[in-house]
# Entry
Amino acid sequence: MFWLGIEQSENIKVLVVEDDDEVRTAMVDFLIKEGYEVYSAKNGIEGFRKVLEVEPDVVLIDYLMPGMDGISLCKAIKNNSETVDIGVILITGVDDLEIRINGLEAGADDFLSKPFLIPELKARIRSLSKIKKYRDFLKSYQETLESEVERKTSDLLKAHLELKKAYEEIKELSLEIIYRLAKAAEYKDEYTGFHIQRISAYCVKMAESLGLNKEQIDLLKYGSPLHDIGKLGIPEKILIKPGILDEFEREIIKKHTLIGFKILEGSKIKYLQVAEKIALFHHERWDGTGYPYGLRGKKIPLFARITAIADVFDALTTDRPYRRALSISQALEIIKHSSGTHFDPELVNIFFKIKDQIIEIRNFFKDEDPKSDRLFLKFFL
Amino acid sequence: MSKLRAIILAGGEGLRIGQYKPLVTFLGKPLIFWVYSTLRKLFPVVYLSFKTEVQKKSLEKLLKFYKVNSKSIEFIPDIRPELRGPISGILSAMHFFPSEDSLLVLAVDQPLIQTDLLLFLQEISFYYPKCILVCQKEEHIEPFPGIYPCSLKKYLEEFIKVSEKKSLYRMFQFFLQKKSLLFLKDWNKVDLNGKSFININTLEQLKELEKKCFGLE
# Structure
């Protein structure tokens, strides 16, 4: 298909480089009569200039020429990436094997020895021009292919960006729903201002200091605010009872860990899978005296151990109906004293290592500051 | 399952005030009434520690007079009555309950005790289940109200055995060494003026406080 038309001589450009005027004129006349588009040059330098100018399909080069000889011109054509595909026929005066070898080394595609027969000349031109047209087609096909690939890649990239944008929007939506859900649970309890926001921020700082990777930090960041989601299932009269709870009431309160687990269990969303474990285990104690299962030490999931410290510190430094917030120093003293009993001692060490950052968070998310909610959403999303 | 038990120490001799202190009238009602009433807001049962049967009978008579529900009161007899001061009352209560329980111990002569302070102590005891928790006012230690875990019973017995003086001061020193004592300095977050710690040792103090209390809610 792609060589259709090649048989028609007028489509083929032939350049004749010959220093002998008579021979050159005779060849040009003959080729014009044969229907070729013919160009000519008297010497090698002029020949190369015309090669660049007219981009012929075939060049007929006389081997013996003054100045730039046939071999040199052949080399110049074949060493140039723009002209390398042009078919070169080297015309020699004598049938010399050594010259042919030199010609092959220079890149010549075919040879003709003077005197040559007209049909032989026609056959060689036809053959080389076919090859040239074929190479031209391949080159053009390659360019078309590359352009097509580029277009497809661009389309794919665009689709990828659109998908990424959609994913980010869905993620943002999911996280905001998680945050609002956690806030809903807070309102069921005594409203403790920006408790969940601070918990999340404390957990992130501890996780960073612990050397967890970005993905784990994000899981903790978005999972920890739901630690008390189970309080949605606790009767309000118990949850906000002003006074000391009796044994029965305390047992009911403790169920918020199991209710939280039930609310969150079975989710395919990784944040909720983490939140499920935090909700279930954040009241376990390092020494095994916590609830609901009395797990001990590192059997308590790491994220729950981290959240436990953050939760208690925030509870102590937050106003309660019967008391104002404890001082930071008293709260830290309590955390320190509970190391190894209530809390994982290694995590308590980390908490103290970053206590300045913890205090900064405490001051940043002040309960009385209406900006805190917006600031937190910025941090959260 | 650990529980917090509210104990009023009512086994004192009342030497300085000249009579059995729980029965001394303050603002028209016995001293013990005020402490008991505050505790009843938070606890279904209040425990009274006494030293002698005479004390117990006086208390029973008083409670009957005020028509106190008998189910809301329980008596804890002193198992070491030969010891002077409040330590024997604390030890007796520690023996009375399982070792995982904690005692919220109050003195009978602190009529202005604040429920918020008791809630605060209860909250902190959750984090320090094996520690005595008492409030500190500058350099002064307030032993009551305080949290005394029953798990420290053996330490307390050891203290009574080895210490010549059975004073609270020495006892606190002993528990400090055992790293089982914590001073709470933030009590003013719940009881701004420290009303809870005002105690009455003499009739003069009582009269003085009564005069001040007319302005109180």
